[in-house]
Amino acid sequence: MITRRDLILRLSSLPLLGGFLGEKNQLRALTAAPARNLAKELGIRTFINAAGTYTAMTGSLMEDEVMEAIKGTSREFMMLDEVQDKVGEKIAAITHAEAAVVTAGCFSALTLGLAGVLTGMDQKKVEALPHLEGTGMKSEVIIQKGHNIGYSHALINTGCKIVEVETLEDLEKAINDKTALLWFLHIQSDRGQIGHEKWVEVAKKHGVPTMIDIAADVPPVENLWRFNDMGFDLVCVSGGKALRGPQSAGILMGKKEYIAAARLSMPPRGSTIGRGMKVNKEEILGMYAALDKFVNTDQKKLWKTWEDRTALIRNAALSVPGVKVVTDVPELGNHTPTLRISWDTAKVNLQIKELQERLRNGTPSIEIMPGGSHINITSWMLQPGEEKIVAARLKEELTKASI
Ligand SMILES: *Cc1c(COP(=O)(O)O)cnc(C)c1O
């Protein structure tokens, strides 16, 4: 039998692992080694994620507490609706919402929330979606022009059409009998003339419900309740970004009547537009475990961890002559220390794409996010110790290309 001490001794003889990874990680890596390594078996590339919570990169890594919730609930049957009822109550209490439900990502929360607004508790209407004509349902969603980026497709999935506005005057004019919802996209709030409070105020004046998309806007943790407190009727967030729940999960929260109505379009109920947006009980409970963990995490400490890691990478990059690093913290969306690294090509002869390829094709493989004239690196999706590998590899490639 391998003892813990043996493991540590054995690991310290592995230069790369011993040098780069923390003890806890080393132990986890070996003691919890799965019987099968499917990534290896199927030839799937795994990598260090120094880019961020990108859907294409599978979002985030679930916390141990989430995996324990998934495993621990996988051996018994439960009624799907009861799981949603009980989890919804807990989530609502945390987020200051009247009610909540776990959806298949933020995108499906947008579709289902709007479905609830359109149908209410009318089963005939639920089954009619996405065909609105002749049903008496409303059919327009008002959005500020600057907020109308790809995600609004979730709204037209209900059969509604988007009406764009720019000024407050436009908004007042656009509201009519067919207006179902006023939708707000937090990440683009600096791209519209109308702010959150005004948006809610105008909607209330006209008796029209509001929804806000805050998919990638946690942290700060307070955003989980800020918009419920502000008076938005529905709030949608991703579960598999910084919350580190299942990538396929998200949360729809808000007014009781809309959540109840949205659930009529969700599994287990068929003949609905949401039947294909199934979330299994393990993911629903895993989502709750992730949220519970996140709100109970010392946010200052977490932030400090991210800062310390980015500082290490920043200093490694800056040690190469001709390299410039700007540390940025985006206010809207992906609120985390972000390094924007660029270089004088007269001193470092390297294209951005080349650096990306070299880091990707190195060992271990590393993903960063290329920008127009710089590369972007974040540290929040790194595992403990990986910042040292990123710093060393980055410095190595920049130095190799130095003239
Ligand atoms: C990621 C994202 C979504 C989609 O969220 P999922 O959880 O992947 O479904 C929607 N809106 C914005 C602004 C996002 O960043």
Notes on the protein architecture:
Helix 1 packs across helix 3 (23-31). The protein is globular. The protein folds into two domains: 78-295, Aspartate Aminotransferase, domain 2; 299-400, Aspartate Aminotransferase, domain 1. Helix 12 (223-230) links the parallel strand 6 (210-213) and strand 7. The termini are far apart. The protein has helices spanning 4-12, 15-20, 23-31, 38-42, 64-72, 80-95, 105-119, 123-128, 153-156, 168-174, 196-206, 223-230, 256-263, 281-295, 299-318, 352-361, 386-400; strands at residues 48-49, 99-103, 140-144, 161-165, 179-185, 210-213, 234-238, 250-254, 323-328, 338-343, 366-367, 369-370, 375-378. A seven-stranded mixed beta sheet has the order 2-8-7-6-5-3-4, with helices on both faces. Strands 9-10-13-12 form a four-stranded antiparallel beta sheet, with helices on one face. The protein is of the alpha/beta class. The chain contains 17 helices and 13 strands. The chain binds pyridoxal-5'-phosphate (PLP). The site of pyridoxal-5'-phosphate has 12 residues, from helix 7.
